[in-house]
Amino acid sequence: MAKRMTIRDIAALAGVSKTTVSRVLNNRPDVDAETRERVMKVVEEHGFVPSVAASTLAGRSRLIGALIPELTWPLIPEIMHGVAEVIAQTDYELVLYSVNDRNHQKDRSEILERILERKLVAGLLAIYPGQSTEYLEKLQRQGFPVVILDDQATPSERIPWVSADQRNGAYEATRYLVRLGHRRIAHIRGPLEYQVSHDRFRGYCDALAEAQIMVEPQLIETGDFTLSSGQLCAERLLTLDQRPTAIFAANDLMAQGVYFAAQSLGLRVPEEVTVVGFDDVLFASLMQPPLTTVRQPLDEMGRSAIELLLRMIETPSLPYEWKWSVSERNLSRSVFITHKTHVVVRASCKQLCTPLSLSK
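The chain above was modelled as a monomer; its predicted structure follows.
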């Protein structure tokens, strides 16, 4: 069987770079006519067709890219369920790119550069992009449709962003604990490079301030959204001379770690320590006891994010800022869609003898 031609082969035969061949194949305007003709002659002589579907070469791509962290992240299945439901009603197909912050910075950059240069997809939904945000802004500046779902390391004022009301969700969770009578309420934050970690911490502080409870530094720990970090943080909190009566973890995985820490120390949930999480992932209701947590409407967030991206793709002729501005009076700001959160009360919380009554 003859060897399949590659872009590298075409570039060598035409005496140009791989990038130039890619630009010619994608009808980029920044290639002179003579070079374009030389490349296309080689392409035609060898019957070369890139690995991308031939229909993509003939016109606009019918592929939508989803940039995601590891598939093992517990939030991803529900988000992608909402995305898939919308995609199923269109003639687009979904392509997944898994990029996480453990990847080398160059690797992330190269993946995103290929997405733009080769027009592999018509637009990109970036889910929890973390450190990739700067590259996404570069794509967006070049006219490539991008929507971010939830957190990024540095919030962007330019890229449309879909999230949940993180601060209010954390406020409501902490306020619920205060209403149960808890005053020594610990908080396990997420990684400080994530905006959600700061928003959830601020919500926690808001509720304590409202109840005139001081924020005690020894009751604040910082994890990394993993079960093991939640367990380590909780072990430190639960071995204090005056341990907290309640722990609010910034996500459900760390809350599960609190359960493990309590068990290892011979403490019972909720009899000796109350626990609240954040996210309401699938396993939260299956924990023993079932976990009280803040529900993010992940399915709905996925649907609204992909719907916004499809609108951007289908109406490319309209000015970007005008289309997606928050209002006609503020044309320079991108869309920022915030979904409501709510506390899902389960069996991981105990009411103390002297609950506080809040007027609000």
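Residues 194 and 327 are 27 Å apart (CA to CA).
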